[in-house]
Amino acid sequence: MSRSNTEIDAAARVPSWISEASALLAKDIRAELRTKTAVSAVGVFSFASLLLVALATETLKEVRTVSMLRLPDIVTLTALEAQMRPAWDSPSKMGLLWVLLCFAAFAGLSHSFVHEEETGTVTALRLSMSAGAVYTGKLVFNLIVTLAVAIAITPVYMLITGMRLGSPFVFISVMFSGCLGLAGTATIVAALAAKARGTGALFGAIGLPLLVVFLILLINAANALYTVDAPLLRLTKDVGGLFSFGVLIIALSALTFPFVWEE
Amino acid sequence: MATQPKSSYANSNRSGSQRFSVPAASALQGAGWKWGMGLLMTYVIYGAFFVAEGAVGFGQGGDKARIVFFHVPCAVLSSVCYFVGMVYAVMFLVRKRDFASDAKAAASMELGFLFCILATVTGSIFAGVQWGSFWNWDPRETSIIIMLLLYASYLVLRGALSMQPEKRARLSAVYAIIALVPAQYLIWAVPRLLEGNHPTQVLTKASNTSLSYKLVLYPSFLAFTMLFVWLLQLRVRQMQVFADRRARLESENI
Amino acid sequence: MAESSVSVALEGISHRFGSRSVLVDISLIVCAGQVGVVMGANGSGKSTLLKIAAGLLRPESGKVAFTLESKPVEPMLHRRCIGYVSPDLRLYHELTGVENLEFFGRLRGLRLNNDGLRDILDRVGLLGRGRELVGNYSSGMRQRLKYAYALLGSPPILLLDEPTANLDTEGVAMVERVIAGQRSRSGGGLAIIATNEPREEAWGDMSVRLNGSK
Q1: Domain boundaries defined on chain B
Q2: Which structural domain, as residue segments, surrounds residue C39?
Q3: 3-class SS at B19?
Q4: In this predicted structure, what is the pLDDT of residue C213?
Q5: How many domains is chain C built from?
Q6: What local confidence, expressed as pLDDT, does residue B61 receive?
Q7: A interface mutation test: which of C60, C81, C94 has the most A CBs within 10 A?
Q8: C184-209: per-residue pLDDT in tens?
Q9: Which chains touch B (3 or more CB pairs under 8 A)?
Q10: Among A165, A192, A212, B34, which is most exposed with the fewest C-beta within 10 angstroms?
Q11: How far is it, in rounded angstroms, from Cα B18 to Cα B169?
Q12: Which CATH number covers residue C109?
């Protein structure tokens, strides 16, 4: 039998994990562009939630105007009640934006692992790729989706709610750190939920508690972002803290992923 | 077909069930120390109401601070239990088929959940009595609720995998390790981010608490820790019994 | 064969699912140019044994050792030497046959050009159907594509679980050709088959019978 171009000793050309991961990423993007499942789930959810926010914002504007008029009533409120009244300032708006992004992400980010597990293509992947490469490929895919959603939603949200920009560099740092933390958490939780053959409910039940702490760090960073003339130390501490969450989650995920992936 | 012996402290070499031992308890075997713990706890409960004088700064007679004898150990244990669980999770992953560690990790997390509930409830009672409102979203209160949520999600994951013990052990171990990141931030970073009403400062000032107060508080820590160890042993033994029973059912040729 | 450039040695493999013993102390050694057969009734553990050989499952006890070019292969690199076909192997239904092969080929360090693709599709009898979505293939076509996937890069070790599942007589002939080609692979080649069919047992040089769960 004549030797075809494919009959080359595979051991001679072992691909690095980066090229393995990028092959997986390319495959996922191609499959996603063809079936559009994750994107449509995320897209519909984002649109609906933006609509809700637009409606809610109208109501909140009214309440604030009314309460501003009734000054003497405000003075008689107890200290505790005053603490509990929601403040509709920029840090709060940022917090709400990220709540929306978290839910939007959870609508779509489990798809990458759950689909592989449900259709049984995991076997072929396990035979073809190292665990580290699989994790990297899926993480980058989720990161791209998260960034895309953030970039699409944030400007519209800012228009609807009037959230301020603050210093552009710090704003972008906060948003990117947030995306990193969100994608990192969602990826490992998706891997766990997929292996547990769980529904989307399991994915949400496991992932969202991890993200509650993340949201607290994010609101803290948002406070620093919107403080006028915040000292550089404070900015570094708060935004850096948020960034470190994502980095640590990804580091621990990379370490423990092989235990999820192999049997 | 080999019959399964009753001893529940044998190691896992036998074909069939997952047998595991409780080595942490080897230093604490027998009934003696449990009686000691029982007496100590009785002293603590009695002492909380009759021996210790109330702390300064807590209203008339400082009586409201008495709940501290129960609240603080529970709160501390709720964090400690998580770390214990996480250590056992790491041990499970590092060794092969070490279901003993998995059982201890699960039991630790369950107990952590229990102590977290107790800490939340006692804290809420204290808030209600001291400030008139049972829940304020104070940073400490928020943290304990989030800790509760983290424990709950661990238990949910385990529950979803109840029919596949090997997978359950592996995946919940990974989850315990991943959840270390939010837990760490929760325990160390979140309380420092905002000022709150939590009376840590008031209580740690030596002049505000009398000697009799400390005479009850420190033994209380000890008593609760011993209680944790005892409950851990009990729970692991219970898991062993269930595993044995399941193995016995599976080995019947039906 | 005196000198064996490629070999697979399964030594003392035992495995349990829960408390149910599926494999008890199974051993099998297959050398270059040979075909080993694992026979047994349904549920006897044939697929499990093959999964263990492929590295998809870690056995309770026992060892899986590969040699390539007469040198032992590190366990982490076993999967690079294997082509695996099995009923529970699934390829991507949302991609075409060609896209699947290009993807998995890339993971093996292969760049397939059109000639290479034509060659491999012809070999498994899918020539002309490569640009259709695998989701639209018949079950027989999917089985053939699995062979194309397994043969990417011409691995020295073929592991075939139920090799002729879903295949017509043409397809069975294709499998026979593949196995014959594997025997005479330059650089050494071998195959291990797991099957129920007595006809397929005849393809092998040696066989192991599994007795079923205890």
Answers
A1: 71-208+231-244
A2: 6-210
A3: coil
A4: 45
A5: 1
A6: 55
A7: C94
A8: 888 888 999 999 888 888 888 888 88
A9: A, C
A10: A165
A11: 12
A12: 3.40.50.300
